[in-house]
Amino acid sequence: MMHTAVGWHIEMEFMEDDEHTRAVAMVRLPDGSEVRAHGHASRHYTDPNQPRVGEEIAGARALNELAMQMLDKAHREIDETAGRVSHPIHV
């Protein structure tokens, strides 16, 4: 049995100021569709300014939202193909 390798490339962009970090995650799927998600992190005024930490938090939140959107997309496709409501996919 032969398997076809498929790859997804996820792009991340960050916008930052002294107190906030915003992240946008985007994946282009083989069918040509794109899924985008956003994440946000805020620095408490007593914390040191560590942009890398804000990127990690905002990025993780964006990737988590992207994952949830991908699960929703998969459910819709299962439901459309099967003609019934699919069981939830738990993460």
TrEMBL record:
InterPro entries: Rv2632c-like, Rv2632c-like_sf
Any Pfam family the entry gives: Rv2632c-like
Top-level taxonomic group: Bacteria
Name of this protein: DUF1876 domain-containing protein
Species of the source: Streptomyces thermocarboxydus
Source taxonomy: Bacteria, Bacillati, Actinomycetota, Actinomycetes, Kitasatosporales
